[in-house]
Design goal:
Blueprint: E1 2-3, E2 14-18, E3 23-27, E4 36-40, E5 44-49, E6 54-60, E7 87-88, E8 113-120, E9 123-131, H1 134-137, E10 144-152, E11 156-164, E12 170-172, E13 174-176, E14 179-181, E15 188-191, E16 196-200, E17 210-212, E18 222-226, E19 232-237, E20 243-247, E21 253-258, H2 260-266, E22 278-285, E23 291-293, E24 298-308
Parallel strand pairs: 2-4
Antiparallel strand pairs: 1-8, 2-3, 4-5, 5-6, 7-13, 8-9, 9-10, 10-11, 11-24, 12-23, 13-22, 14-22, 15-19, 16-17, 16-18, 18-21, 19-20, 20-24, 21-22
Length: 315
């Protein structure tokens, strides 16, 4: 079934999609004025913001929430929302030539267009689109069409595509900036980055000359960039035994981040104790892994996330 979408300005603050009937109805939102979609089907519940086409929540039936969303986040227009899966594009981190320009690009701060929704017994598929405009060209002078396809079923699948509609090639970096909910960060491990070189952003002078020897454990602020990564990782929680399964075969870069105590206290959109229950494991193409996209070319990157218990099958 394909559902015809009204423009977001004609919808109430929240649109809810339920079950196979795809019943649409307005509902008051708790997201302080941000237009969002709430998706409910037999497999999962999810919340997606029009700004950045950002998945804010995803919870598989019978499982704890997979994603973390800050209770102190700013839900103001064009302000980054702390949590869920912000899409960093067309650059990750600081702007490559002008540090005064906002970090992590503009894709997460601007509204996307919900193109259509389809659904069947396996769940819902939402397609959002975003293209260059006067505002984006003022800080990144390239013409592009972007699309984010979001599949909501037993797992959460994102497919990010970029088309070059400019008259010359352009370069970009990007990341799925995923925030995961964890029971307790000190009882959490990340598996899958063993034997991978990394840059410790807290000690950048060492470069990529350190090698991750064991599954990553957390005892202090952590901010590491991994190159030549496999794209397959697990977040293992010792208490609940629930695992977050990450599969990003097109993404050779990974970032692992937890701000710990002092950094969290400096962030205005996180509660002081929030560091204990969140962890970022991000996948993308950053640093030296620049993507060069030729004229009329299209490139796509996929990310699949799922929650699982040891007795369940993996992605």
């Amino acid at each position: 079934m394909v559902v015809t979408i009204s423009p977001p300005e004609k919808l109430d603050k929240t649109t809810v999609v339920r079950g196979l009937s795809c019943e649409w109805r307005g509902q008051t939102t708790e997201y302080e004025g941000q237009p969002v979609l709430v998706i409910e089907n037999k497999h999962c519940r999810a919340v997606i913001a029009y700004q950045g086409a950002q998945v804010l929540e995803f919870q598989r039936r019978g499982h704890a929430p997979l994603l973390w969303l800050s209770e102190a986040s700013n839900f103001l227009p064009k302000r980054a929302i702390r949590g869920g899966i912000p899409l960093c594009f067309p650059w990750f981190g600081q702007h490559p030539t002008d540090p005064s320009i906002l970090s992590h690009g503009f894709a997460r701060n601007l509204p996307w267009t919900l193109y259509h929704v389809t659904e069947d017994d396996s769940g819902h598929v939402l397609t959002f689109t975003f293209r260059d405009n006067e505002e984006t060209r003022a800080i990144w002078p390239h013409a592009f069409n972007a699309m984010l396809e979001i599949r909501l079923g037993q797992s959460l699948e994102l497919k990010f595509s970029v088309a070059n509609v400019d008259k010359k090639p352009f370069d970009f970096t990007f990341a799925f900036h995923s925030y995961f909910a964890v029971d307790q960060i000190t009882e959490t491990k990340v598996v899958g980055l063993e034997n991978t070189p990394f840059l410790d952003q807290l000690a950048p002078e060492k470069g990529f000359h350190q090698l991750e020897r064991f599954p990553i454990e957390f005892h202090a602020e952590t901010d590491r960039i991994y190159q030549r990564a496999t794209g397959e990782y697990q977040i293992v929680q010792e208490h609940s035994k629930q695992r977050a399964l990450i599969d990003a075969p097109d993404c050779s870069s990974a970032i692992v981040w937890n701000p710990w105590i002092e950094k969290t206290a400096r962030l205005g959109d996180m509660d002081k104790d929030a560091w204990q229950n969140m962890l970022c494991v991000e996948c993308g193409k950053i640093g030296a892994e620049v993507v060069t996209l030729g004229v009329s070319k299209v490139v796509s990157f996929t990310l699949t996330l799922a929650s699982s218990f040891p007795e369940e099958s993996l992605i």
